[in-house]
Each structure stands twice: as C-alpha cells, then as structure tokens.
Amino acid sequence: MKDEELVGQHLQELRRGTVVLACLAILAQPHYGYALLETLAAAGLSVDGNTLYPLLRRLEKQGLLTSEWNTDEPRPRKFYVVSDDGRALLDRLVREWSALDGALRALQEGR
Fold this sequence. Notes:
This protein is α+β, with helices and mostly antiparallel strands and 111 residues long. The protein has a single domain (4-109), classed as Arc Repressor Mutant, subunit A (Orthogonal Bundle), CATH 1.10.10. It is 65% helix and 13% strand. It has helices at residues 4-26, 33-42, 49-61, 84-109; strands at 31-32, 65-70, 77-82. It has a 3-stranded antiparallel β-sheet. A hairpin with a 6-residue loop joins strand 2 and strand 3 (77-82). The longest helix has 26 residues, at 84-109.
C-alpha cells in the first residue's frame, strides 16, 4: 500500500472498538489501570495510557464498569471491574464480532 499514514488511520479505527471489547473481557476480574495496560500489551493490543484512562472513566460513567479504591498498599490504586450491564454488553459485542468475522471470512473466500 502506498500511504502508510492512511493505513495507520484505518488500523487505529479498527483497534478503537477492539480495545473496548478487550477491556470489558479482561475486567471480568478486577484490574487497576497499569495492570490493564500490561495485560492488553501482553495480548498484542498496545494501548497508550492517555487512551485507556479516559476510556475507563467513560465506561464507568456509562455504567459498564464499577471501580473501587484499594488503599491497603502504600500506593492507592483504583480497581475496575465489569458491571452486570457491562457483561451483558460484552456478550452482545462478542456475538456481533463473531458474526462480522464470519461474514468477512465468507466474503474473502468468495473472491
């Protein structure tokens, strides 16, 4: 492809929704922000903290995550976990992801 900037823009768009899906899946178990960044990176989804933290706040505001401060350690950490509404959304998004994946595979095989 000629224009790597154009490719980068489309890849960024594709990853944006994927990060929401990944966060909801990972946060079935409580994580604090930095641990979530590491888990995403280990899975091959590198996300910048300046992207993740606003996303976590937005998902919490939407009622898809809940959070709790842990002050037992010297450094307080805010732990996030998916809510019941977040689990329901995750289930629906995973079904949709599977349907889209199937449709794209079918289209590619029909080339």
